[in-house]
Amino acid sequence: MPLYLISPVWETSWFKGKTLAVKTTFLNSRLFIVLNLASMLALMASMYFAINFDLKYITWKSSEKAVLCTLLIWLVATVAVVLLSIPLLCTDLGDTPIIEYRAEIYNQGKYFVAAVMAVFIVCAGVIGFLTTRSIKKKKKKVFQSTRCFPMIS
């Protein structure tokens, strides 16, 4: 359980300040959410490639490419979240508890969440559309091939 959820129960005096608030917000809220969404998009894209390119995809994929894709996802997500988290540094409430900092950060972060969700929904929609289109093409191709070779009873 993240420490910032336990802090109101413990009522600790050391769980205060801007630095700790920015770090917990950056890691717990923003980075891991963006990483989860990016990983889901990568899995959806992998399914699309597997459907669209059949056995060519199996010969194309490798462990090295999977590691490269994972590193690329982490790099892009981290850079995007760092750039979008720069406005967090302008928030200064003094030595107040972290829960008050997080409330202010969430109030300011509405647009961050909206932007991330909009990008995710658009990308998932595009991948879903391409996958559906690819399935229909494959289905049509299979149906046409069975018409050419009628079953002998």
* Class from secondary-structure proportions: mainly alpha
Number of domains: 1
What is the N-to-C order of secondary-structure elements (H for helix, E for strand)?
Answer: HHHHH
Task: Work out the helicity level.
Answer: over 70%
Mean pLDDT metric: 77
Taking pLDDT < 50 over at least 5 consecutive residues as the criterion, the unreliable ranges are: none
Shape call: elongated
Please compute the radius of gyration using only Cα atoms.
Answer: 23 Å
Oligomer: single chain
Number of DSSP-assigned strands: 0
| Approximate strand percentage | under 5%
How many helical elements? 5
User: Kindly, what is the distance between the CA atoms of the first and last residues, rounded to a whole number of angstroms?
Assistant: 64 Å
Query: What's the story with the biggest beta sheet?
Result: none
In short:
With 153 residues, this protein is mainly α. 81% of the residues lie in helices and 0% in strands. It is elongated, with a radius of gyration of 23 Å.
List keywords for this structure.
elongated; about 150 residues; single chain; mainly alpha; about 80% helix; about 0% strand
Q: In words, what does this structure look like?
A:
The protein is built from 5 helices and no strands. It has one domain (about 5-150). Helix 2 (about 20-60) runs antiparallel to helix 3 and helix 2 (about 20-60) packs across helix 4. The longest helix is centred in the N-terminal third of the chain and has 43 residues, at about 20-60. The protein is mostly helical and about 150 residues long. The chain has helices at about 5-10, 20-60, 65-85, 100-110, 110-150.
